[in-house]
Predict the 3D structure of the following.
Amino acid sequence: MGLHCMKTLLRFVLIAILFAPYCRAQAGTVTFYSRSITAKSEAELIIPMSKQPFGGLQGEWVLDGEQQLARVRAGRFVTFHLTPGEHTFTDSGLTGDYEMPLVMNVKAGGQYCVRLFATLIYVGFVSLWQNRLVEVPCEQAQREAAHLKPIDIKQVDPAVRAEFEPQKKFPGEIPSQHSP
């Protein structure tokens, strides 16, 4: 009985190993990134409408629908393999929830890049932060983000760690699915 169960388990494991690359290939790859805080971005804080790195030093959550994906902060990136279909990306954090979601139709085998940033708007003596999620051509993202660091797996929601792709550097030479 024990030998029969072990053979069955071994067959199951081998089939799972053989089909894992196939399943991963059927997903679409989405990379989210936020530029680093620089002297230029700090100096632009006095401009009435300036674009700033997303999440600051603490980070903000990027969500797919109601599901948290990862806490992204300035100077970091994260890549996920997501199921094909429509995805609605938003954020949530210290600056509040963004009201305008980024809706993307992720295709099997597709490569997508999303820049995260915040717009600082001055209204009288009050400053307002509005987070933005914008799909950009991956070739452009690679030029902007090649020097960024990956987020730590601890910043990825445990429920989606199977879709998370740990990387040491920003994905390079990736063809974009971005349509102008």
Notes: Confidence is low (pLDDT under 50) at residues 12-24, 38-47, 49-53. The chain has one domain: 27-160. The CA atoms of residues 51 and 119 lie 5 Å apart.
